[in-house]
Write a structure and sequence with these properties.
By secondary structure, the chain is α/β, with parallel strands linked by helices. The protein has nine helices and seven strands. Its EC number is 2.1.1.163.
């Protein structure tokens, strides 16, 4: 069953996700760092290091949001970074952030659908996604599009929430994710659905080997899963 942000609406998941991120975009960065205690920043750094070996010149950041992952990728000294997202609200916040940091000449943010990418085949050396594939309406279609626009020999790096397995951390995590996070998220963002949807979407996401199996199925090779922080999130990689 598809997990939706707004269960009382009959619009498709893709539109609901866009509406949800438009709604929370002004508070998104603050909530991201606050609710994760800043650990999400370290996760992004670790994920980007997975690309050091291939020295990518052209990087595509899918579901770029406000551009944090794209900004982190600049540590690789690429020639071009392009970020795409379906939420104009998030992109607007991201563009302002890039202007303030004088990075708007190094990163381009575009409106784009991850399941129908507006790029030619074999165009990018690396594709990165942070906390975005969980929101795809059709996961396999989105991953297939990523495979299409990645050049042969290129690498995909996906950072996504996963589910801790060990006691008692699993129980503590579940309590925080189901009770504290939605309450704080609602108070600050004023959108109750957004931070109720988050734990529900993580619970339904095929993490670990289930996700690497899907990467294998769409064509990626040498797929790997690297759990982070006792399994709260994972880095997935694959080669075309």
């Amino acid at each position: 069953m598809t997990v939706l942000p707004y269960k009382d609406k009959d619009t498709a998941k893709k539109q609901q996700v866009a509406d949800m991120f438009d709604s929370i975009s002004p508070k998104y960065d603050f909530l991201n760092h606050f609710l994760s205690l800043g650990i999400d920043i370290r996760w992004r750094k670790k994920a980007i290091k997975q690309l050091q070996e291939i020295k990518p010149k052209n990087i595509l950041d899918i579901a770029t949001g406000t551009g944090d992952f794209a900004i982190e990728s600049l540590s690789l000294n690429p020639e071009q970074v392009v970020g795409v997202d379906i939420s104009e609200g998030m992109l607007s916040v991201g563009r302002e952030k890039l202007k303030k940091r004088k990075l708007d000449d190094r990163i381009t943010l575009k409106s784009g659908d991850s399941e129908n990418l507006p790029f030619d085949d074999n165009m990018f050396d690396a594709i990165i996604v942070a906390f975005g594939v969980r929101n795809f309406e059709n996961l396999e279609k989105g991953l297939t599009e990523m495979f299409r626009v990645l050049r042969p020999g290129g690498k995909v790096v996906v950072l996504e929430f996963s589910k801790p397995k060990s006691f008692p951390f699993k129980q503590l995590y579940n309590f925080y994710f189901k009770n504290i996070l939605p309450t704080v998220g609602k108070l600050i963002s004023k959108d109750k659905a957004a931070y109720t949807y988050l734990p529900e979407s993580v619970k339904s996401f095929p993490d670990g080997k289930m996700f690497t199996d899907i990467l294998d199925r769409v064509g990626f090779n040498k797929t790997q899963c690297k759990p982070l922080t006792l399994g709260i999130s994972s880095i997935y990689t694959g080669i075309k």
